[in-house]
Amino acid sequence: MTRLNIALKRIILAVIFVAVIWTVIYLFFTPLLHRYQIKGILGTDMDLQIIARRLTDVDKLKDGLILEIQRLNKVFSSYLPDSELNKLNQTGYEQPVSLSNEMETVIKSGIEFGSVSGGAFDITALPLIKLWNAVDKSKSDTPSHKEILKARSLVDYRNISLNKGKLRLKQKGMALGLGGSAKGYIIDAGIKYLRNHGIKNALLNIGGDMYAVGKNIRNTSWQISITNPRPDRYSKDMISVVSVENRALATSGDYERYRVSKSGERIHHIIDPKTGYPARESISVSILAPTALLADSIATMIFVIGPQRGLDWVEREKGVEAFIIYERGGKIERALSSGFPVSTIKINK
Fold first, then answer.
1. Which residue of 113, 191, 296, 315 is most buried, as measured by CB atoms within 10 A?
2. pLDDT one-digit tens code per residue, 91-124
3. Would you call 57 helix, strand, or coil by DSSP?
């Protein structure tokens, strides 16, 4: 074999070696962004972004995640007749009801936030929520004061008896509504599912509440926009961009689930349990917290108690930040906690 042939052979082997190494890196180490936008999850839309290596069966992961979300929906749904929540509401006054671990966790959290908020957050507010019926845009009437007082008399988280996994409602007609916390718990469970299957970077967004795991495809924090709650008055679609990494972001607002009364009043779904009327202290409250359950619950609580008390509470809580939009004197105002990681604010006044 001539020196030329030996040299040529070495070059070919080197090229093959480089190609093999490149192929291994490409297949096993190069991440891809997989994005799924799915309608009809928990009665809303889901945006799932997963960053994974090319050989990862991400479709299988997505399908497994949806099954887990659907399983939990059968626990917490107020719309499915045979859900655990509805069965509890139907029989909880007559006799103690045994709870699943998931239900017990969310109810314990609800009772705790009821105590922390002095009743501003109350998981027994379902009678008031049903009375106002903010989601039916064909309605324009408002409940009478007498109807409100009657429904409000059924609302008091302290009338929940919870002992060793069994719950009883102490007052006839009481009913639990977990809309201010269950979605957060389900998001946390979805993130746990993804992490258990080796996913280190992902974003799970269900109806505007979300958890960001790790970093985005550019290896930076996830950049999440907060929606302008008054687009008819301010032209910008988004009012801020938030940098989020291994934290949850949840928003409570009066701008999606609402109807308009005959007098032009905005009737939304977040009810102040103490007054029995839709809460008026805030327009939108966005909360960053270690878990989506916490973020979801705190956002609802602060929406009711208002910006000043809300910020005072947040500043005392480790790992919690708030971005609050409210109206005073006909003007849209904003209030941020000291550590809220907002990068832009685009309200044009």
1. 296
2. 999 999 999 999 999 999 999 999 999 999 999 9
3. coil
Residues (pLDDT < 70) of the chain are 1, 3-29, 234-239, 343-349
- Give the count of beta carbons closer than 10 Å to the beta carbon of residue 228: 22
Q: What residue has token string 């480089």?
A: 18
Helix 182-196 and helix 292-305, axial crossing angle in degrees, nearest 10: 160
Query: What's the pLDDT tens digit per position in 293-308?
Result: 999 999 999 999 999 9
- Both tokens of 252, joined, read 């409570």
> Parallel, antiparallel, or unpaired: how do β-strands 266-268 and 238-244 relate?
unpaired
**Could you tell me the CA-to-CA distances from 262 to 131, 137, 194 in Å, in that order?**
16, 12, 47
What tokens does 78 get? 């107020």
Distance CA 218, CA 222 (A): 9
CA dist 325 and 310 (Å) reads 12
**Are 160 and 113 in contact, with CB atoms under 8 Å apart?**
no
Paired residues of 287 in beta bridges: 250, 322
State pLDDT tens for residues 119-165. Answer: 999 999 999 999 999 989 898 999 999 999 999 999 999 999 999 99
This prediction has a pTM of 0.89
Tokens for 2, please give them: 């001539």
Q: Output DSSP code: residue 165.
A: T
CA atoms within 13 A on the CB side of 17: 6
For 252-314, the DSSP string reads: EESSSSEEE-TTS-EEES-B-TTTSSB--S-SEEEEEESSHHHHHHHHHHHHHH-HHHHHHHH
DSSP assignments along 83-121, one per residue: SHHHHHHHHTTTS-EE--HHHHHHHHHHHHHHHHTTTSS
Tell me what pLDDT residue 241 has: 86
- Hey, what's the torsion of the CAs at 95, 96, 97, 103, to 10 degrees? 140
